UniProtKB/TrEMBL annotation:
CHCR repeats lie at residues 468-623. GO terms for cellular component: HOPS complex; late endosome; lysosome. Transmembrane segments: none annotated. GO terms for biological process: cellular response to starvation; endosomal vesicle fusion; macroautophagy; protein targeting to vacuole. Keywords: Lysosome, Protein transport, Transport. SMART domains: CLH. This is Vacuolar protein sorting-associated protein 41 homolog. Residues 698-735 form the Vps41 C-terminal RING finger domain. SUPFAM superfamilies: ARM repeat (SSF48371), WD40 repeat-like (SSF50978). It comes from Drosophila albomicans. Residues 2-274 form the Vps41 beta-propeller domain.
Amino acid sequence: MAVNHIDVDPRGEYVATCSDDGRVNITKLFNWKNNRSFISGKFIKAIALAPEDKSSKRSFVVGNDKLTLYEPSLLHRLRPRELCAVEGSVLSISWQGNFVAWASHLGVRVYDLREKCSLGLMKWEVPAQARQENFRCHLRWSNPTTLLIGWVDTISIREIRKRNAIEASSSNLPGYVVNTVSTFQTSFYICGLAPLAANQLVVLGYRKERSANYKALRPVLCVIEYKKNTYEEVCQDILPVRGFEEYTVNDYSLSSIIEENRYFIIAPKDIVVASLIETDDRVEWLIKHNKFEEAMEISTHGGSLPLLSVARLYINHLLTLKKYEDAAKLCLRVLGNNKALWQEEVFKFVKCQQLRCVSAYLPTSEDCKLDPQVYEMVLYEFLLLDVNGLLNLIKEWPPKLYNGLAVINAIEDKFREQNANELLEALALLYSYQGNYESAMLMYLKLQNKVVFELIRRFELYDVISQLIIPLIQIDREGAFKILLDKSKIKPDVVVHQLEQNQEYLYWYLDGLEKTESHGAFHEKLVGLYAKYDRSKLLPFLRHPLSNYTIQEALAICKSKGFHPEMVYLLGRMGNDVEALNIIIHSIKDIEMAIELCKERNDDDLWNKLIDESSNQGEMVTKVLDGIVDYVNPELVVSKIKLGQNIPNLQQSLTKMLWHYKLKKDFMDLAHEIQLTDYFDTHVVTLQKRGRNVSDDQVCASCSCTLIVSDSTPTNGLTIFNCGHIYHETCLTDSRCGVLGCYSRKLLDANL
């Protein structure tokens, strides 16, 4: 009967076959002595040789209604050992190491030969429109612990792992467990599968669709990449086999030699050998299918088509798709410092008018500097289509890359008012690069750009700005005056001459100049400018000892402006105190200020003028009385008071004045007394320090006894008074002299 299954051991030495008549043959290809053959008497659908067997006699597993292991024994006999009962019958077997996987009508099991137990049943879901018995189950080990299962239209990847200590101790379970890595459904029925690379499988598929006359379609060979519970088809080939229209899904099978990456598609009339394509073939196929990134990756590992050629084809492809930015980035990636290639590729962007996209990626270093015309073309395109981009490039690119004069001429030819600011700034930069700083400064002036000050300082353009002082101030007053007030850079006479036409600017300048260093030549102008723009600074300026101005002209300006305090000061300097006093009294109407002026001058005529002016105004009389103390006799003011004249607070003023004079008199009397006392005390002390002559014939003014007795014991002491009287110390009863009519104080005490 027909052979159901063929299995070849990994070394290629043994071939095992089985059939529905129950016959099993084990044939050794190079030695006929160890061949085996027996009949079990039951249908046998699957057989598997031991993957590793060091003995000359091979073990094998067969499956019918049970799974049986046959092992060689003595006398060339086979010893059968039933491994496991089967639900239904065994449909497929695959053996790897200590694990035997087999499929039955209920699903797939894995048997552990070492622990002699099944690791559990993996039930298989069958689509409603398909019958499971009509499809062969395909089992394949991709490594010692990973099992690939393909059945009907579903693929499942299972991994066998050892239980951890906690799992193993929790119950009486096998030492290994089967985990699901990925399970997914395909768009075709599975005729076979084999591993290719990490997460990739080679799958032989039988298409579910039918032709127009309900015939089968050609089979497909797919490379798929599986993920958690889905997959992605990497590539697919339709196989040209003969008689495909009459074949069913079980008429095809897939075998492989993994070590050689060779796959065998077996059909009733053909065997198709599939292998990994060569590098050039892969690159060509990827280019044909517009997979340029993958083609570039592969070409780096060899092949006749170099990476640069693939990249240039990719650039053309991107330009065709109008992906100009991506094409420009690719140029940067692959062209490196190859000047010739860069210029060739750039001209492709010229044809598309997309030089703007590649501008950011053009080489600008000395290692790879393109022809100036290339950069000029880029700048010209920006000039026409993107003025802001033009300005940015001029700022970023080194000026040596292109001919600056040519770009300047192009900008002047294409100058547009709506883009005036950007174009003027671009011209300013270009002129600066060319060393034409005067033209650059004029551009910045038109722009009202503060960069002009940095340009002036950096390149010392002080001689050029003499005619441009007012425009500079209009841009930035503070920045302009930092330059203008530096007399070592530009002379004040030049600045003043230019600013004569703008008096406010002239005021700002001269005021700033005065703060840094007094310049007497312009003080005359400052008087008028302070009077016009900042009166608060006028009087301090007039009072300043270094101010150099004509008093008459200053007075005329103050009169025209009605600046009375300033007029008072100037009239005082001219000696016209009377007119100054009149202004204070009648214009300023500040009697305290008038009094202060009189005190400052201390002139009797001026005081009389003030008293006369105030006598008719009662309010002023009291203020004058308060102010003239110690300067003028108050009788002069009081005498001017008319009988019945109403003078507010007169009593308080008089009382205050009298109290002041009383205090003054008391103070003077006290001072006089202190002075006399100090004089007397000083005189007495001087006399006391002097020696006094006492003769033998002098007597005590009290007891009339001789003061000095030469032959007796000396007395304790003598007391001498200013009047000349002398007492024995024992005879003295008071601090004053006791002689009738004499009250002189004691001059000194003396011991004999």
